[in-house]
């Protein structure tokens, strides 16, 4: 009978979370690099290059791929012959592993988990608790899958109860465009079919832990209806032209994963959950011989790319004027220099509440830009930890007020803006700039100074002032209200039908 020691289990969970914070799965890198080499959209190719460069920097520097270091998901298959040498339960052991990983002094990870979600929403400060799934299986080992799921992709999860005669493909094709780009494509779509509502959701999440093998599947041909469905959806979703970061291009998904389960005769539950460019998961086994040992991947699997700043137009944020902002064109690449303010959900809500009460704000936003970000805490000699953009649409409801009452002239975030925000941007002749989601460490290299200027009690959601140098962004909504997240996919959806299928 195998005995698993409490300390070995905790240490393994902690080590796995550190590991996945800076090592992409190699299968993801290989498939993303293939897509990068085949991509014909310059905007999408640039975005994928930033993700690949960022990934290599993280693997070399052991710092997080994304500033959103996720909510922890752990899947355990516990052998029924296993004995535990432990004084606390499985959930407590998992949470202790999470606690140690997220407070590791050499690679501190961002605590994003909030208790009392319908009330005070207070940060637990150590990213606990994790979400744990346990099953008992024959054997004398413990199989562990650990994942860290970012909020941007998790928020795009979808579920529906179809009629048995309804088309799964039609539902997926109708639903994917509604997800926007906040889930940071290119990634993977996990689909669960059957069972009950909660079973379908669980299968969709579990499927994301499987290796990317779409190209191998296409090469050998499908051997089941599920494999046929995977290929059909892969081809049709990519034909939508959404592309990397929603900018329009050939690759929106690298793979489609599907798990199914018998269901009631009257039911057809369907769940769909995306995995983003910060795909983070690892699998290991414990057999009683000690903690798991995770070997680092070879950096030979990463392409050696560098970011070319010569193609961007430098902008001085300290002297930029509304008139200059109005000359910027949709899709134009800018390099930001100077002082950049930050603020995201909690800061925006507090500021809007203060404005409604007639109270002065602690920061002057006149002719300034705000960056939607919640950075990771710095370690060693860093001025700031990984600091990639958060999903901009969550700030849409605050945008008109901020533009009307603060003198703000521009915003920087991730993915598209909704109709209300675009109208406000157009009405005030402001601009929205897009930074690449999934390139947080690369972005942080452009931040040369950082200080907290307001709302320090909000932690990572406080207002900072960054001093940036050549921070790359794309004009995503110009002063006339033209959105590249609308024009780009529309153009590439039309073009894809005329482009021959390329083979790497």
Detail the topology: elements first, then pairings.
Layout: E1 3-5, H1 6-22, H2 26-38, H3 42-61, E2 71-79, E3 83-85, H4 90-102, E4 114-115, E5 122-123, E6 131-137, E7 142-149, H5 151-154, E8 158-162, H6 168-175, E9 187-194, H7 197-207, H8 214-220, H9 225-238, E10 253-261, E11 268-275, E12 281-286, E13 313-316, H10 322-325, E14 333-342, H11 345-356, E15 369-371, H12 396-405, E16 410-413, H13 419-427, E17 431-434, H14 440-444, E18 447-454, E19 463-477, H15 484-496
Parallel strand pairs: 1-3, 2-6, 9-10, 13-14, 14-15, 15-16, 16-17
Antiparallel strand pairs: 2-7, 4-5, 7-12, 8-11, 9-11, 14-19, 17-19, 18-19
Structure description:
With 504 residues, this protein is α/β, with parallel strands linked by helices. It folds into three domains: 1-148 and 296-306, no CATH class; 151-277, no CATH class; 309-489, Fe-S hydro-lyase, tartrate dehydratase beta-type, catalytic domain (fumarase, Alpha-Beta Barrel). It is built from 15 helices and 19 strands. The chain has helices at 6-22, 26-38, 42-61, 90-102, 151-154, 168-175, 197-207, 214-220, 225-238, 322-325, 345-356, 396-405, 419-427, 440-444, 484-496; strands at residues 3-5, 71-79, 83-85, 114-115, 122-123, 131-137, 142-149, 158-162, 187-194, 253-261, 268-275, 281-286, 313-316, 333-342, 369-371, 410-413, 431-434, 447-454, 463-477. The strands form five sheets. The chain has a five-stranded mixed barrel. It has a four-stranded mixed beta sheet with strand order 6-2-7-12. Strand 4 (114-115) and strand 5 form a beta hairpin. Helix 1 crosses helix 4, helix 2 (26-38) packs antiparallel against helix 3 (42-61) and helix 11 (345-356) packs across helix 12 (396-405).
